[in-house]
Design brief:
alpha/beta, TIM Barrel, binds zinc ion, 34% helix, 7-stranded mixed β-sheet, 373 residues, globular, 18% strand
Length: 373
């Protein structure tokens, strides 16, 4: 991607026109949140807080390279202008083999070009994730897997990517019909990715639904694709974090986990132990006790004290979907939830002390993703 097309701080070679792509079949795995429980829809006021959303999905339609990413990008910019979103980091959702054709960053980077300064992008959700899942299912990682994975990852960065995303290690689908997805977070290919990210000084955006101890699947998540028992997975996650301290890992969807185990207390514990861990906050749905905002729309004290203790470790990752008007299916449903996520994010930022709002809303994102101002 040419540097004028995004807001990368450092120029990258303009190799973005090459579209090698993988011809892996995939099923789009939704990473969107469940619908928030309360739905006060107010028009967004103007003259307001500006923020950066580091977790945005742009969907132009199904297919290896989407047909109408430009329509999705137009929708994104219109919403960003209205909501005060200065910049957005776009990435493909995590996808798996076996369903509709996956897509990766190639499907949308050309559509971002008309909007210099508004977008950066991550890649790998449509290619690296399926590769890693394939290796995971075979049990272990052959040298050939590692080599192929490394080549793919390195190639993407040469095209101007700001990091890898959305990469998943444990993903609970929240809509029926989508597969359950789980590999150990310390899978050799994820360790390899951490090394590559560290070497190139870029982030990994990681979807990882934490399970602190073995638990039965909550009834509301019951589906044929989800296992009846979820196994504890935090130890592997901590091994990934400790593997390479120079790898900046942004753990996506803080404040809206589906299982109820990602508490403010767990966040504090992990942030203290792992200096390379960051979290992106999603003002979506989830188990009520872990939401950042209470029913009155105020920030809960346990989260506020966490933000004060770690003011430089949080960013906003709304998980907003922007789609072509032609899209049908889950992406369209997720896009319908984005206005409420924007509204709740603005509410959240307005309730933070101004210095924290500046850091969490903008400055941390600029530093972590090396964005230009
Ligand atoms: Zn996700």
């Amino acid at each position: 991607m040419p540097r004028e097309g995004v807001f990368r701080a450092r120029p990258r070679p303009a190799l973005w026109r090459s579209l090698p792509g993988l011809v892996l079949l995939g099923i789009l795995v939704s990473c969107a949140s469940a619908p928030p429980r309360e739905a006060p829809r107010q028009p967004v006021a103007s003259g307001r807080i500006e923020w950066i959303d580091v977790h945005v999905h742009l969907v132009g339609g199904r297919g290896p390279w989407a047909e109408d990413s430009s329509g999705a990008a137009r929708a994104a910019v219109a919403a960003m202008d209205e909501a005060g979103i200065r910049q957005a980091v776009v990435m493909p959702p995590p996808q798996v083999r076996g369903g509709p054709p996956p897509y990766d960053y190639e499907s949308f980077i050309a559509a971002l070009k008309p909007y210099p300064g508004r977008f950066a992008f991550l890649g790998g959700g449509g290619t690296l994730s399926p590769l890693r899942q394939e290796a995971g299912q075979r049990g272990g990682s052959a040298e050939e897997d590692v080599r192929r994975f490394g080549e793919k990852a390195g190639g993407f960065l040469r095209e101007g990517g700001a990091g890898f995303g959305e990469i998943s290690a444990h993903h609970l689908p929240l809509m029926s019909g989508h597969p359950y997805e789980s590999v150990p977070a310390d899978h050799p290919l994820l360790l390899r990715l951490a090394d590559i990210a560290a070497r190139h000084d870029v982030v990994i955006d990681l979807h990882f639904d934490p399970v602190t101890e073995d638990m039965g699947l909550p009834g509301r998540l019951a589906s044929p694709s989800n296992p009846p028992v979820l196994r504890a997975n935090l130890a592997a996650f901590e091994r990934l974090l400790a593997h390479n301290r120079k790898a900046r890992i942004v753990w996506a969807h803080a404040g809206s986990d589906p299982l109820g185990q990602w508490t403010a207390a767990l966040s504090r514990e992990l942030l203290r132990r792992h200096p390379n861990l960051h979290m992106s906050l999603r003002m979506g749905g989830g188990v009520p006790q872990n939401l950042v905002l209470d029913a009155a729309g105020e920030i809960k004290p346990e989260w506020l004290s966490l933000f004060r203790e770690f003011p430089d470790r949080f960013v906003i990752g709304g998980d907003q979907f922007f789609v072509t008007p032609q899209l049908r299916g889950p992406g369209l449903i997720f896009a319908g939830r984005a206005p409420l996520i924007r509204e709740r994010t603005r509410r959240f930022l307005s309730r933070l002390p101004p210095d924290l709002a500046g850091q969490i809303g903008r400055e941390n994102a600029i530093r972590l993703y090396r964005l230009t101002r």
